[in-house]
Design a protein that fits this description.
Oligomer: heterodimer
Number of helices of chain A: 8
Strand order of the largest sheet of chain A: 2-1-9-4-7
Strand content of chain A: 15-25%
Order of helices and strands of chain A: HEEEEEEEEHEHHHHHH
Radius of gyration of chain B: 11 Å
Helix content of chain A: 40-55%
Number of helices of chain B: 6
Distance between the termini of chain B: 17 Å
Chain lengths: 341, 68
């Protein structure tokens, strides 16, 4: 690599950046999005019967946790009972919920890959719904539920249904590709801003980089050692595993960055301090915004603390703090250098 | 240990750290680190500094106290 000319290295870096960006976007395609849909449907009831149940299909592309949210919440009490069911392709009920009005959010369902039928069914008396619930091994208590009788007519009711499923593997690979892209971009930046052949005896920089790398590796070894020990001891770590993995990588990168800045391991970068400080500030702000966005999602859908959405918010928060820390150190070093010269 | 000999020789030639760094093909920070004693240069860099300051290796890098 060191034998290659500067132009070849630049072209090589650009190709790598494009490749990694494509890989990152490709990976993100496999991270499922929130598929919540909201619509209004007219429910007609006549002669003691509801015309038809509200049905929808749920296609689970990857086996694993599915966070389901469904709501049937008419403003007026329509006088009939509702049963919400999730059935697999064989007709077996994997989840149900019942009541006059009902809402189901962030259900921690473990579903296999495949197609499921979700359905709201309506009943005009407790005996009918209990007949349906008997198949599921449960019943509504007549004493605790009031039923005012069935009302004929037409009602426009809000009905929402959707699911959120995050593919952790795809998310991690997308994030790693994004990280590698940033590193290659920094390398390209150094290449473009350094002058050819003028620093032929500057082994000090290589030495400083080596020391920074060693310190970074030791930090990560200690961190992951403690993490693995905690896992082996089955200590409850509360947050998603992805948070701990990324926190370790970020801690190692932070140590490397701080030592590199303090020891002038990348003089070419030091010469472009203003641009670099702006980049760090922009990245910190972006991470801060993403942190707030993910935290709002966490609150909105009432995710658990060990969910990936909350985990990503924490990673964004850690990144923001680390980037701001690096920014402060860089500004401090610039002031120190100015006083020294 | 600080290398005051290089600093003195540089001042005698009216060169700044940056000027000397450019002549030697290193960064200013490297010259600064050598003068402060934070970095031991390689023999290649020592020779480049000696050439730039018209001094011998003995004059700039030999520590009498260490060998007596």
């Amino acid at each position: 690599m060191s034998k290659l000319s500067k132009k070849t290295k630049i072209v090589f870096d650009i190709v790598l950046i494009i490749l990694f960006m494509v890989m990152c976007l490709f990976s993100f395609e496999f991270v499922e999005r929130d598929t919540k849909v909201k619509y209004t449907q007219v429910v007609t009831s006549a002669n003691g019967e509801i015309t038809e149940p509200i049905k929808s299909n749920l296609v689970v592309k990857h086996s694993g946790d599915v966070s389901l949210h469904a709501a049937w919440w008419p403003e007026e009490d329509l006088g009939f009972l509702t049963l919400f069911t999730v059935n697999d392709s064989d007709g077996n009920t994997v989840f149900y919920s019942s009541g006059n009005k009902l809402t189901c959010e962030s259900l921690p369902l473990q579903l296999d890959e495949g197609s499921y039928e979700v359905k709201f069914t309506f009943f005009n008396n407790i005996d009918d719904i209990n007949a349906a619930l008997a198949n599921l091994g449960t019943a509504i208590d007549k004493d605790e539920n009031t039923f005012d009788g069935f009302c004929d007519g037409e009602w426009a009711v809000d009905f929402s249904f959707g699911y959120v499923q995050k593919n952790i593997g795809a998310y991690v690979s997308a994030a790693l590709f994004a990280l590698v892209t940033v590193f290659v971009a920094i390398h390209l930046f150094v290449l473009c801003t350094s002058s050819d052949g003028k620093l032929q005896f500057d082994e000090r920089q290589l030495l400083a980089r080596g020391r920074a790398s060693t310190a970074s590796m030791i930090t990560m070894f200690i961190y992951f050692g403690v993490y693995l020990f905690a896992k082996l001891c089955e200590i409850d770590l509360y947050l998603h595993d992805v948070v701990y993995i990324f926190a370790g990588i970020i801690a190692g990168s932070f140590v490397f960055a701080i030592i590199s800045i303090c020891k002038d391991a990348y003089v070419a970068l030091n010469q472009r301090r203003t641009a670099l400080c702006i980049c760090l500030a922009v990245l910190a702000v972006l991470n801060g915004v993403m942190c707030v966005y993910n935290y709002k999602l966490f609150v909105k859908y009432n995710y658990s603390v060990d969910s990936l959405v909350f985990g990503v918010a924490i990673i964004n928060l850690i990144s923001t703090v680390v980037l701001l820390g690096a920014l402060v150190v860089m500004i401090g070093k610039a002031v120190y250098d100015k006083r020294e010269t | 240990m600080k290398n005051l000999k290089i600093k003195a020789a540089r001042a005698a030639k009216d060169l700044s750290q940056d000027d000397l760094a450019k002549i030697c093909g290193v960064s200013r920070q490297t010259i600064n680190a050598i003068e402060k004693g934070d970095y031991n240069p390689t023999i290649k860099l020592c020779r480049a500094i000696c050439r730039a300051l018209d001094k011998s290796l003995d004059e700039l890098f030999w520590e009498e106290d260490e060998n007596e």
